[in-house]
Task: structure prediction
Amino acid sequence: MLYVIGLGPGGKEEITPKAMEALATCDIIAGYTIYIDLIRPYFPEKEFLTTPMKQEVKRCTLAIETALTGKTVAMVCSGDAGVYGMAGLIFELAQSYPNPPTIKVIGGITAACSGAAVLGAPLMHDFAVISLSDLLTPWKQIEARLRCAAQGDFVICLYNPASKKRQDYLQKACDILLESKTADTVCGWVKNIGREGETAEILSLGELRNASVDMFTTVYIGNSKTKDINGFLVTPRGYPIP
Amino acid sequence: MLYVIGLGPGGKEEITPKAMEALATCDIIAGYTIYIDLIRPYFPEKEFLTTPMKQEVKRCTLAIETALTGKTVAMVCSGDAGVYGMAGLIFELAQSYPNPPTIKVIGGITAACSGAAVLGAPLMHDFAVISLSDLLTPWKQIEARLRCAAQGDFVICLYNPASKKRQDYLQKACDILLESKTADTVCGWVKNIGREGETAEILSLGELRNASVDMFTTVYIGNSKTKDINGFLVTPRGYPIP
Result:
């Protein structure tokens, strides 16, 4: 049995009982070192299997092969395991085994939603989620998606807006959005959602272009109707306000 | 104090401890009748304030005015309160009061994520979330967003794909997507996610056009790489598979 489990933003109080119960039944909990460290204290008796970043294929293969020995294994991810997490890779790798283990995905709150709650209510209307990481996706395709999302007047939520090697990606993305959106479009970002050092800011698209973000930041670009209401980022759903 | 709380897909085991703790501190819990019925059994001693569907402005106004009397109030929504929920309307309405109550949004697992977990891992890459309800959004804008999302090769997740009065909206949406996507694009739907009567199906875009869906169904349209892997709907993230 192989569970793929989303832990939500980080704190124990945002892990669902369903996820905690599945973790409790496991013999082995696998994952990226940082996420394992979040839950290790709650399960001191468990066996843990950690691999560093950029070893996702190795990590998932290990989890599958351990499950095939008859153990109950959990692969944990931050946020939701099905949004830029390990769920897809587990399914892809498992199909090459003649008798793949039973796989069950248990959802968590993804950063788009947990960050939105910090800022107010930016995702109240149709939205697009785009990762700016070009490790696995050609940058040209990311650019095309940014243009389509802006053209459709979607609220846009950006994951992985920067890393050490990609310091200027958010700036490049903003320049593309500025082709069709105005510089005063209301935007926001949240860093370290639900963890120590949580910070957030509401700012214009023109200002966002020069914002300092990192790989733990989630970025929101409003649609044409998104507003700053008393310090909260809010996209109207369209209800007639009396 | 006014909390806006997402309950996730439905069952108690997917409500976060953070949401349960906030509910426990409340004097009054407000919401749409169906969602209130989900949590009433856990808080038999609380006062509840329910209004039927399509009375969202009245419901949120009542919650705000009750909070202004000094009570701690929770407005509950299914899924995440910030995704087509009540969070935005609460902020919009509260601003017209001279001293609005403190508002805090507590996230939940939105249907896009909980439904994805049932189907496999369809949202592993960039995706767009679109509601097909034209009660508050002009249909022309919904059409434009469907075209943009298809053009950007986003995975598309549809909320509110039908209602009693909008039986043919999914068909109309599929016809728009079929302008640029092939009929064999891999799709899926989930009905009654996490509740009694949960059902799901993986099917082609051509078949989806004639699928029977209702207002409790969430629909997924794959991108050009989405696959059916042993009965699971999976969008590859792009990892090189050995």
Summary: Chain A is about 30% helix and 25% strand. Chain A touches chain B through 79 residues (CB under 8 Å).
